[in-house]
Request: fold
Amino acid sequence: MYSLEEPDTYDRCAAVSAWRPAAVLSRRTAAWLYGWLPEPTVVEATIPRGHRVTPPDWLRLYRRDLAPHSVSTVTLLPAVSPAQALFDCAVVMPERDVASLVDAELNRSVEPDEFRDLCLTHRGRHGTPTAQRLLRHASLRGVGTRARTRPRAQPSRIRTRAQPADEIIAAVRKRRRSRRPK
Reply:
């Protein structure tokens, strides 16, 4: 590709698609195409595992085989599905930055069940624990970060529903032990 002027991000995305037809725009670039993030400085795309190419400085390539249902078209460009884009952002972005994105887009652009399925499908891979944690703590009732009055709770301070039951069981066992004849 050749350009007389400095290409913008959309032109670079189109160039990636023309250069490698199997390339699919992903991660922060896909999130930008969906309107979730500001324009990225580096275009990110995913190519099949078997492809070995050296990208230019403005392009970061990831190698992964994508299922056909996880690829869509956004403004005439191939991009990962909204759920896959959100999952990928959870993998590559700092957790404090992506937490508000997950809260904003779950139930709006991405079905929570679809995001949960990706967490299960990619279990054991880099970034999956972060994505699972974000899903668990996300505001699934559609409340965005603007409506939040308290900061996001730290996982160590969150009490689960099972804790009171565990305390009750422990108290019952302790009482039974104290009643046993010696």
